[in-house]
Structures are given as C-alpha cells and as structure tokens.
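Good morning C.,

I know you're traveling, so I'll keep this short. The sequence:
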Amino acid sequence: MRVLSNPLLLKWFNAFMRLSSPVRSSLGRKCDTDLRLPLHGECHAGQVYLVGAGSGDAELLTLKAARLLMQADAVVYDRLVGDDVLALIPNGSERYYVGKARGHHSVPQAEIGELMVKLAREGKSVVRLKGGDPAVFARMGEELDALAAAQVTATIVPGITAASAAAACMGIPLTDRGHAQQLRFVTAQLCREDGTPDWQALARKDETLVFYMGLSKVSAICHGLRQAGLPDEWPIMLVANASQPEQQSLVGSLEDMPEKLAAHPLPSPCLIVVGSVVQRVATSPVELAAVSRSSEGAR
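The tokens, ready to paste straight into the viewer:
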C-alpha cells in the first residue's frame, strides 16, 4: 500500500495547476492561495479497486481514479486505457496488461480474476483499470464474482462511459424533452448470428439507442431497425475514439450509413448512436474543431 507521497502529489497537483492556469489568471492572485486539491484517502493493502479510466482523455479522469493510480502497488489495465492516463502510474508500480481486442482475448477472463486475487493475497493494493465506466459492458460482474469467491474486498470507482463522451464531443444530449425520453445502452455482440436482438423492442422513436462494440455490425443494426419500423431517414451517428485527438465521426441515416461507412471506414473503438437527438449535431454550438470530418455529412 502506497500512501500518497509528496512527489506524487506534486506531480498531479502541477498537472492540475497547468490545466487551470488560465482560469486562475482571470480570478487574480488570491486564487492561488485559496485553491485546495481535494485528494484524500488511502489505497489499502489486499484490496482491489475497479476503476473507470474514462473515454481516453486524461482530463476526464476522476480525481479519485488519479489518486488510486498513483498509490496502487499494482495496476491491471485494458487496451482502451490512454497513454496519458497510464502516465500517472509511478515507475515503481507493477503493471499487468490484459487488453482485449475484437476477436482476440490476450488474457482469458478467468485468468484476469485469478491475477487480481493473487496480487491482493500478496498484500498488494490493486487497481483494475478499465476503459470507460467499469460497470458498463466491461465484465465487471464476473470480476466481482471472482473477488467475492476469494473473499477479497473490492471498491468500485466509476468513470465517464463512451456514450457520454461521444455525445458531449458531438455537442448533443443523450436525452431531450423534444426527442428522447428514454436512453438504452445495447451491446452489439447481440447482433451475432446466435444472438439476434429484439428489433421490435429497440425500434422506438422516443428513445436514444447507443450500441457499444458494434462497428462490424452497422449494416445489421441499420437493417434490423428499418425492418422493425424505423424510417429510412432515421438519424444515426458513429463516433470513433470519442474525446481523443484522433476522434472521427459520421452522421447519416439508417438507409445511407452502411454506404457512408464503406466509403469512409472508421477505426475501433466506435460507438453507434441512433435517435432523433442526432439531428441536433447540425445546429449544435459546441466547437468541433478537433473532430475529423471524414466526409460530407460527417462531423
């Protein structure tokens, strides 16, 4: 267990001060003496912290997540954790990469659970670092089961999920009184041949659908929703690498999105947002200078 030492606190504090310097300048010199960074608490030996790393932008990481990363004896992390976030881990901490890519799991899920238990039983404080929010399509339930079976104490630290980051970066809400009164997260893994979604239940005009892990299933999603009754012109948006400098996006309709994607392929990870709220992209005041415009109609 590592108590937050002065050098580590200074590292995070200096980063915070650099980011906030324009704001502090506008408030005057008194702000410097009044500013207090709200970091407190310990990272306990023998305990596992299931931490959300957010969408990849280090500035969107929670303060608690940053503190735990700097305190933990060992960090077990995924493929979608950004380099800027990993840079907060001290050189002396143990790192274990267990990243997964579509169609290939570098480390089986059961072995990840065994690794966390092993490290905790060695008396180490362990951060299990997951991209996005650990409770959203991140197999956290299986890892909690493994820890519970081994009687290892766990703490959950939420992170910003990809849906929130993508909507924010594209300048739209996920819910809106005039467009969507409901919000549904769906894993596109259900779009495999052996797990067809209930398209009739998903084809609603009063909600926003967000598909995770669905880049290879865009055609199936568009076809399924159209067959279930949504109009051909119903809005859909694809956002890859949301909130990161390499963010790319496409905006279109259920009818034309497969063709747009074929003409302008997007990288993974990519989020799919379906619903009338997507119409707001065209009129949003949010600055999209960092977004790569892949084609006409893309934002």
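Safe travels,
E.
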